[in-house]
Amino acid sequence: MNKFYFSDKLRGIYATFGKAYPAAPVAEAIFRRVESMPDGFMDYSLERLENQPDMPKNLGYHLRHVLWPEYLEKHPRLKATESQSRCNNCSPDMAGFFWAWEADGKSYCLKCACNSRPDLAHIQPWTPRMALDAGLRLSDPAADGRAAPRHLPPEARKAVGHSEKPRIEHLREAAYADAENW
Ligand SMILES: [Zn+2]
Question: Which of 26, 109, 112, 165 is 20 to 30 Å from the Cα of 138, by its Cα?
Answer without folding.
Answer: 165
